[in-house]
Design goal:
Helix content: 40-55%
Distance between the termini: 15 Å
CATH class: Mainly Alpha
Biased composition (Polar residues): 1-14
Biased composition (Low complexity): 21-31
Strand order of the largest sheet: 1-2
Protein name: Maintenance of ploidy protein mob2
Radius of gyration: 18 Å
CATH architecture: Up-down Bundle
CATH topology: Butyryl-CoA Dehydrogenase, subunit A, domain 3
Bound molecules: zinc ion
Keywords: Metal-binding, Zinc
Number of domains: 1
Number of helices: 8
Pfam families: Mob1_phocein (PF03637)
Structural class: mainly alpha
């Protein structure tokens, strides 16, 4: 089932992003590219804990996520995507809220997601800028919350249609939520472990990945990054695919 194909060609023509009035709206396509980094021959990166046993296998949901993400009978695909995005956002926001005191300007001066990967933000002058992770994440979460609250984007009232830009908007949302997951895994996994929340967090993220792939909301290149700047969670995705938790 293709979410995008199901909406038809006419939708894709009108998706060129309009500037929405929120201050963060011009910034939802941050550059992929990390700043050039000098080679650092002395650094050998240890395997992150989230890729290590038993944490990599920890899950609330056992087995494959395929059936969980399937469109239920009689449910509109837009509604299904909207309600799932709402749930992913709400759950991720709660997790981040718990660890937020450990994610500050000192601990996380950059929005990191791998040993050589810092996400940059496109500001209103279309310039790519580095932000501290808490600032970046605050921008993402505020932007998503505003979209969810906007009945023109996520209609909740009977008779209101989803706008033609909905698929493109949710793809942007997905990409930014992925970055928040990626930062938490990379920089704050020990705090997740400290809370003994790794089964819950892993299941939330696996569900997010499975849903994103099923409805074409998630690009593989965003999950894996580039060879010079891999996303830490890209390896987690590979590991879960090998374990049969996720499909291709
Ligand atoms: Zn942080």
């Amino acid at each position: 089932m293709s979410f995008f194909n199901s909406i038809g060609r006419s939708m894709t023509r009108s998706q060129r992003p309009k500037r929405s009035p929120t201050p963060t709206s011009a910034t939802f396509s941050p550059s992929e590219m990390p700043p050039p980094q000098p080679p650092s021959p002395t650094i050998t990166t240890p395997k992150p804990l989230y890729l290590s046993s038993p944490f990599v296998e920890a899950a609330l949901v056992k087995g494959n996520f395929k059936t969980i993400v399937m469109l239920p009978k009689y449910v509109d695909i837009m509604e299904w995507v909207a309600v799932n995005i709402f749930d992913f956002y709400t759950n991720l926001n709660e997790f981040y809220g718990v660890i937020a005191e450990c994610c500050n300007q000192q601990s996380c001066p950059k929005m990191s997601a791998g040993p050589a990967l810092n996400y940059t933000w496109i500001n209103q002058d279309r310039k790519s800028v580095h932000l501290a992770a808490p600032t970046y994440i605050d921008y993402v979460m505020t932007w998503v919350q505003n979209l969810l609250d906007d009945d023109n984007t996520f209609p909740t009232k009977a008779g209101h249609e989803f706008p033609p830009s909905f698929p493109s908007t949710v793809k942007h949302v997905y990409r930014q939520l992925l970055r928040v997951f990626a930062h938490i895994y990379h920089a704050h996994y020990h705090q997740i472990l400290h809370l003994r929340s790794e089964p819950h967090f892993n299941s939330l993220f696996a569900h997010f990945l499975a849903f994103g792939r099923e409805y074409e909301l998630l690009e593989v290149k965003d999950v894996k990054g580039s060879s010079s700047a891999p996303v830490g969670v890209g390896q987690l995705w590979e590991a879960w695919r090998q374990m049969g938790i996720l499909e291709g």
